[in-house]
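Instructor's aside before we start: the two examples that follow are unrelated to each other. I chose them only because their records fit on one page, so don't look for a connection. First example below.
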Amino acid sequence: MATSCWSSSLFVRFPPPPPPRLHTLELHCSKPPQLNYHNKLLRPIHLHRYHYQHQHRHCPLRCCSKKDRLFSNLNQSTFKREPGSVISATLLVAGTTVGAGILAIPAVTQEAGFMASAVACISCWLYMVVTGLLVAEVNVNTMRELGSNGVSLVSMATRTLGNVGAQIVCWSYLFIHYALLVAYVARSSDILTNFLGIPLYESATLFTLILGGICYFGSQRFIGAINGILIFGIITSFATLVGLASGDLQWETLLKANFAAVPLSIPIIALSFVYQNVVPVLCTDLEGDLSKVRTAITIGTAIPLALFLVWDAVILGTIPNLETGAGQIMDPLQQLRSTNGVVGPIVEVFSFFAIATSYIGFVLGLTDFLSDLFKLPTGQRKPLPYLLSLFPPLVLSLLDPEIFFKALDFAGTYGVLVLFGILPAAMSWSDRYSDDSELLKLPPLVPGGRVTLSLVMGGAGSVIVSEILENFMRPPLN
């Protein structure tokens, strides 16, 4: 049997054997790739590995353990393998997670107190780690079945939940991204207006044009360098802020715990741990190696968890007597900026860097999604997805400059808990327990079977229902 053949995915079917040991098939290619008239590869070339069961000791193809990678990433110019780095993947998860949600955590947890909100943060972290691992599990199984190295959330939902699931994913994805981009533009314009002394519409437009221009015109390396600078700014400003504010920390206030107020804070806390939109990218970069993906997700989300807890403790412990308003969320950061002339500017700098990193990531994610939705050619930057990603959030943020907390709350309740709460468990349920696929199932990343999946879906559903009831039962403001 010939094993040297150029193909992006080559399935080799063996007759049904007894099931002793799981092997992996590695196919090496020796012929030059086939190019089109644009001198581009017709399809990306990868060294795919497909699991099969075979007992023969003298298999002509090299066999590997089942813990090996699913395929190999090749440089399309040199045709050399470029394996993904676990460290880079971990930093990608951490950078995606640390966003504007951290700015809202003290505001939504002030009534619950630090101790109760710390329990809520750790619980939400565990929940979001589980749903991220479920996304990774379904993603790799979908890549194995489709023979493709890059699989979107829509493709995963179509395969496991059908067209209805794909529609829910599409609308939830668009809702989350637009709601968060509106929140980011609204808060960043407020920060720039305070610093530069220019009108709100000018600062919002300046922010959108500069960062949107970086996303559209910048190369992948240039965008990565800008993101690295912003992350360095986040770390530096955060360390400075903690060092200055901790001197005024009133430790006894950190012992406050009002668990009855915790449910109202869960949507925004869950939103603060969103990273699942980059899990398909992780699975591709790490070549389908689920052990590496698990490591990147666990460590990459644990870093923001520690950051969130320290941030919440510093803010709530520095301003113990927080003012509250009926039916409104009072921002502790605003009070800190107005009462502390030294800490206030550092809070603004940290807030701006956190928003900027999230804004770049969500713009790139939304433009890729819209390009796929409009079936635009891959590898080419068309202006339409960027125009649709940048200008609607700009207009909406100018119509309601105080939309920051409302946008985050709606995105967390009706977007995140559906797209990254209910749907990953539903897709995993279908993927694990349906008999449609002929492929061998990978070992589940999340133990517990149907009980765990039911708890994941039930937890998200209960929060959504309670939030809906709370909104209906809340008395109107005078």
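Example two begins here.
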Amino acid sequence: MDDIRGPVTNLPGIARERLGHTRLHNVDTAPRAVSAMMNPNASSIIDNHRVRGRTERIPVAGPWVTDLEVQYVAEAAANDWYDNAGQSVDRFETEFADYLGIDFAAAVPHCTSALHLAMLALDIGPGDEVIVPESTWVATAAPIDYVGATPVFADIDPTTWCLSPDSLEKCLSPRTKAIVTVDLYGGIPDMEAIAARAAGIPVIEDAAQAIGAFAQDRAAGTLGEIGTFSFHGTKTVTTGEGGMAVTSRSDLFERISRLRDHGRTPAGHRYFVTDELGFKYRMSSLQAAFGRAQLARIDELVGKKRQIFEWYEKRLGGVPGLRLNSRQDGVQNTFWMVTVVVDRSYGLSTRRLMELFDLQMVDTRPFLPPLSSLPAFSEYDTSTTAARHNRTAYDIASRAINLPSALRITEEQVDKVCDLLQIFLLSGKGPT
């Protein structure tokens, strides 16, 4: 049998061992079951695609933009100057906080800056540890390094793919200053169990991928002391680039507001008085105007994300050996990125699946590689420990991909993606 090789190369020794030397089980029942279930027309999908000579790729992510966004941006370009300077930003912050049901929102250039400000507001610094789940984009953990603290990498839950409460408990130490949770791919971790184990340690909720998700009627981003959001062009709500930090604590909001504007307070703003050195972490009016239009369409945008997931679920939900994003009791998942985990019996690694789809003009993304496997964090001793213990994150990363989930994707395109995936599963290596 071939080795399963994950999406990460140049890893620390233990990480490389975990991702690169896992052997396949000698099982072939799942491929046989797929053969019986497969769309009878699927075998002609690849040939038809080649005959038609299409060059258009199916995108993995992307926005849905209408005339409303163009109208809002044009109005801001014409009016947000002089006495009206910044009014679109103020309105976006107010409307966003109202949507979440939270007291304060601060618009920033990106979610990375929101996380950076959150950690500064909580006075995290050298000598402190911040616990973060393995499976997330590097931007979740990078601000821990910015403030001079040490990242501690916890494993993920095998069902939600979010922070495991049990692993979190093992990572706690007297130096733990904060915990960062991640609402991965639009899902939400077990925040009640996490809060019980945190025992008062502040929680920063990275809700970058989860606008529109809810847990027990509470919006994603409102489940910790500070929540952060991304409005990158791939996200459900976009401003091109952008982010938001939200909180119900006035002291944290005041600190975030000061630090994002070069350390100035409202009282010293007119006189250019800077009390401390801060950052230029403000959003522009044109970005905010775009975001206001997107927020006005939030139900439509989130609804389309859920529809896309249902298209995939209908076609792949019964395929043996495949697992899609979970549905949890009490949680409204937004399914920002439809993700499939493939049983090892198929002999298809993350990288191989991506290569096969790429040959057929279909864009995919890898399940996010464990943070502790990245060379960027190799200098931390915590990476070595994590690579040894965080088996779930390493396992899933070796055999899972994000399927095309762009907001403008069609049901016909989903059909093609699902047919191709079943062909790849049958062959074990895909078409040549």
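The chain has two domains: 3-61+299-427, 67-296.
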